[in-house]
Amino acid sequence: MRPTLPIPFQVAIGLIVLAMPVPSATNVVFMMADDLGWNDVGYHGSEIRTPQIDSIAQRGLQLNRYYATPLCSPTRAAFLTGRIPLRYGVDRPIETQGGLPETELLLTDVLKAAGYETGVVGKWHLGLAHVKHHPNSRGFDTAYGHLGPAVDYWTHIWDGGLDWHRNGSVLNEEGYTTELIGKEAERVISERDKTKPLFLYVAFNAPHGPLQAPAESESAYASIQNPRRRTYAAMVSEMDQAVGGILGALEREGLTDDTLIVWCSDNGGAVRLGADNSPLRGGKGGSFEGGIRVPATVWMPGSIEGGRTFTQMMTVADWFPTIATALGIDLEADSQLDGLDMWPALTKGDVVDRTEPYVVGVFDSVALIDGSWKYVEPLPRGGSGVAHLFRLDRDPEEREDLAEVEPERFEPRPALHRITPLTPHTPHHLPPPPGPRRRRPGGRPPPNAGGEGARMPPGRGGGAVDGWKEITKPPWVEAADR
Questions:
Q1: What is the pLDDT of residues 320-352, one digit of tens each?
Q2: Is 72 assigned a catalytic role?
Q3: Buried-most residue among 138, 186, 246, 481 (CB within 10 A)?
Q4: 428 assigned to active site
Q5: Cα–Cα distance measured from residue 6 to residue 46, given in angstroms and rounded to the nearest whole number
Q6: Helical H runs in 337-472?
Q7: Which of 44, 72, 134, 428 does the annotation list as catalytic?
């Protein structure tokens, strides 16, 4: 029987955790890309070269049916809470107001109780308007990167202010964000507290817009005629190099054999910005497969290896209980998590049965996945609002709508997904306050806030952003003092 030293946690959702010292110093490095399409990795046959990411897939498992949500904030929320974000009101990007509800217990809370050092590097996007929503207030010992939805890759400006920080203090630092994120992750690994195991969450902002890449990286894809696709490919390659640096840091520190390594995307790619989700239908923002079924791979020497393809369904919410089991942390049987413990499946090939349909989606596009059956309601933005029914084992590309062919399966679906408990809307559903630089959630940022065609600092292939070195106050700093 494993010795334990229980440390109870109980929160509003009724989750009780018994966290105990980890019997073996198992580390976790969880890497997440931003808006990467299904067909944008080398191991899926893309023309984009991703040898470092491919190396994880070749040594571990390719998760062939892994589901995120259609948008950034909901996926990040599901990862850290182990729950469907629709339950607690996170159904769209969190921008100028609100954040991940404080009532939610996070994976970091559990890991810190078990003696882990916790760090996040890169994109947060779970609340910036108040310090209570910042990563250092949500279980992370250290945090570095940007808090908002997007940032200029060179100037680090978003919405008229500098959104780049270390542990909540604005950081004026030169460099391409993807490279900076990779180097910071390497630093955290090498300078970690060596008396504790490490949980490191590396959230790349690549290849999310704006489309910006070093000229030398773009030149390597000169054969790609579409200029957006060419820049996008260069951005993915930059991220792959950063992944290689992180893997190298683990190797140098002698941690590879004791580390659970995960790499995935947060949602499907934005086709208008050069992503390729083929052969899947749709993309970012919608609940067709191209928006929610994303590339992912996991590797842990001695436990998860072999270069195999994992075909069972897995979701972003599953990581909470799965990581807990991998690290020897017991969760009570009545834990109110939507995610399932996939550790037996990943390590031994056991079949994990989902007794309840899984609901995934955002404010205007929800899907219900029940085994091989998938119900989508309504169509993504810009569609007709007509609901669909698909059988994914026979039709993964969602070409054949079975709504009329299988009415006995189609008609009960709406009621089934609507019984999922939803809490009242949280503050980020309110429109942003009026002002010359504010915009609606999901809107396109102004040109100097990192949108397409954003001006870059001197020496980076564009004109200077006026005073870019002097901008040190992000637009949300006053609100953060509340």
A1: 999 999 999 988 765 789 999 999 999 999 999
A2: yes
A3: 246
A4: no
A5: 47
A6: 343-348, 407-410, 413-418
A7: 72
